[in-house]
Design brief:
Bound molecules: zinc ion
Strand content: 15-25%
Shape: extended
Order of helices and strands: EEEHHH
Number of domains: 1
Largest sheet: 3 strands, antiparallel
Strand order of the largest sheet: 1-2-3
Oligomer: single chain
Structural class: alpha+beta
Radius of gyration: 20 Å
Helix content: 25-40%
Distance between the termini: 64 Å
Number of strands: 3
Length: 107
């Protein structure tokens, strides 16, 4: 059963920026963050966080829909990569990285 998710402001500690579950953006390092708990089938829960931009816009459902559309589009692009990636060996990777590091030291 889908239940409503009640969010409320709480002190954030301003330590880090985190994902906004409404728009997919990031919260700012502010003193207050808005969070709630979403119940998931099987008794699991997850924290739902809302950024200041979304709180000010009050346009939650439109932003949630756009965010979900973007996630679905990204998922389709990710699935399209399955079985199609050509990737350098670890040795090739490390050689280029070492060359890059050697070239970046300019004293
Ligand atoms: Zn947001």
């Amino acid at each position: 059963m889908m239940t409503n998710v009640k969010t409320k402001p709480r002190q954030s500690g301003m330590a880090t920026r985190r994902q906004c579950h409404v728009c997919g953006g990031r919260t700012e390092k502010r003193a207050t963050v808005c969070e709630g708990v979403q119940m998931i089938d099987g008794g699991e829960t997850r924290v739902v966080r809302i950024c200041a931009d979304c709180i000010e816009s009050r346009d939650f459902d439109k932003r949630l829909s756009a965010h979900a559309d973007a996630l679905e589009a990204e998922a389709a692009l990710t699935r399209a990569l399955i079985g199609r990636l050509s990737v350098p060996t670890v040795q090739e990777w490390r050689r280029v990285e070492a060359e890059e590091m050697a070239g970046s030291v300019n004293f």
